[in-house]
Amino acid sequence: MSTLTLERNFFPLQNFGHSLTAPAYVFKPRCAEEICEAFELAGKTGLTVAARGAGRSYNDASLNGGGIVLDLSGMNRIINWDPVTGRVAAEPGVTLEQLWQRVEPEGWWPPVVSGTMFTTLGGCLAANIHGKNNFRMGPIGEHVIEFTAILPTGAEVTCSPNKNADLFYAMISGLGMLGIFTSITMQMKRIESGLLEVHAWPVHNLHEHLAFLFDKAPDFDYTVGWMDTMTGGKSLGRGQIHAANYLHGDEDPDPQKTMKLENQILPPRIFGVFPKSILYIFMKPFANNLGWSAVNTAKYVASLRAHTFRQSHAAFHFLLDYVPNWELSYGRGGLIQYQSFLPKETAEEAWRGMLNISLKRGMPSYLGVTKRHRPDQFLMTHALDGFSLALDFKVTNGNRAKLSAMLQEFDKVVLGAGGRFYFAKNSETRPETAMRFLGEETIAKFRKLKKRCDPNGILESDLYRRVFGNP
Ligand SMILES: Cc1cc2nc3c(=O)[nH]c(=O)nc-3n(C[C@H](O)[C@H](O)[C@H](O)COP(=O)(O)OP(=O)(O)OC[C@H]3O[C@@H](n4cnc5c(N)ncnc54)[C@H](O)[C@@H]3O)c2cc1C
């Protein structure tokens, strides 16, 4: 019998980019029973329910304006860790930070991580995140052995690639719209050192940028590109490629030392003095076209020398966490991230067009990140045999409508080039866009599963209503 009440639980929630606000009734369940209580309350009140992990999606994936939001960050126990087999079982609110800090000192690393360590496992599975090794290791879902989830009917399901396989491949990538993960069992990756060997090369234009990502991928465990998205003309798409390999055998003379947590954890201070937590305040004056153009040019000039160095796993993967709250430097309107995935054959032309449009309209992206990808078999997959480009756009009251129109124009370019989108990032994807890139058959399959798992349509988020709202 539910003891939850709505009173005094109504709070404004935001997306990671702080460009959206959606007040909701927020509950923080500690166990599966409390999730069921929230479903009961939803049934009684007619409200809908969305899950929220760490709220690190750039868009409205974990917002549910006027409805109930289940903040799962309190279900954060590592249930079982076996350092011999590298298998871990955890509750959905366990963050990647908790996970790597538990397994790394014993010679393991999460096989797939996002660019921030503050995401939760539940959120990572629901979005089916990719890392800088997507072309090699696939998305996180490929490393899940089994999970349990609570459906809005109150039923508990256990899914693996061999058991309830249809639900396994749909709930991973299903944005929490079919059920709520309550425990997740995953396989970690063996490492022989706490360091990666990283190579950095400058690339002088878009063609070279994509060719480098493509050519280097087979020889490396990880590749990622930074793109100066504020310079056009012949230098459009210039930037820097980083590619990294694990160290093996005696390449690391003292792996016990490099795998110690103290040699992985990102320092809280810059130069040992300046607290990083306030750095974003000093970035604010630069968060305009002129400031970011200068930053991009300086970064490009600094990257012109090819070099090789060794870096801890945490430092390589979680670069964005070096500056806590960096997203706040974008100011009141926040930021929108637009990530498109394009086949390797069409990416160059499509992105050339999009980047030129953004420069011409005076709404350039301040940060561009490229990755190499391969397809996977999850129902709502965003991946394909090609590349992705993530672009960060500053939102202001003055540009909000123009920016939205430009990004919808980009959607058309991406669709025309056979591309796909990622539901954890984009804020503009419309139902007809999703229908085009996912295909009628996939959407019909998703809706059928939704009816089976959630017959009364209790699980909804702002994203769900935006993209799948009107069947
Ligand atoms: C700085 C930064 C860098 C990033 N880098 C990458 C990257 O490299 N690769 C990448 O793929 N993504 C990346 N992301 C996106 C991020 O990994 C995803 O948005 C991820 O889903 C966020 O996890 P979260 O715990 O914050 O989930 P939330 O944002 O809170 O939720 C995301 C989705 O998961 C659902 N959900 C949450 N918990 C559960 C649960 N227990 N059961 C069912 N559904 C649930 C929510 O309803 C929502 O649909 C990045 C984000 C940031 C802010």
What does this protein structure show overall?
By secondary structure, this protein is an alpha+beta fold. The chain has 3 domains: 10-73 and 448-468, 2-Layer Sandwich (Uridine Diphospho-n-acetylenolpyruvylglucosamine Reductase, domain 2), CATH 3.30.43.10; 75-190, Uridine Diphospho-n-acetylenolpyruvylglucosamine Reductase, domain 3 (2-Layer Sandwich), CATH 3.30.465; 195-433, Vanillyl-alcohol Oxidase, Chain A, domain 3, CATH 3.40.462. The chain has 15 helices and 21 strands. The protein has helices spanning 32-45, 96-103, 121-127, 134-137, 165-171, 206-216, 255-258, 279-283, 289-302, 313-317, 347-360, 400-416, 431-438, 440-453, 462-468; strands at residues 10-14, 21-27, 49-52, 68-71, 78-82, 87-90, 108-109, 144-150, 156-159, 180-187, 189-190, 195-203, 222-227, 239-246, 269-270, 274-275, 307-312, 335-343, 367-373, 386-394, 420-421. The strands form 5 sheets. The chain has an 8-stranded antiparallel β-sheet with strand order 17-12-14-13-19-20-18-21. A 5-stranded antiparallel β-sheet has the order 5-6-10-8-9. Helix 13 crosses helix 14. The longest helix is centred in the C-terminal third of the chain and has 17 residues, at 400-416. The protein starts with 9 loop residues before the first strand and ends with a helix. Flavin-adenine dinucleotide binds at residues 16, 50-57, 61-62, 72, 92, 114-116, 119-120, 122-124, 126-127, 129-131, 175-176, 180-181, 320, 424, 461.
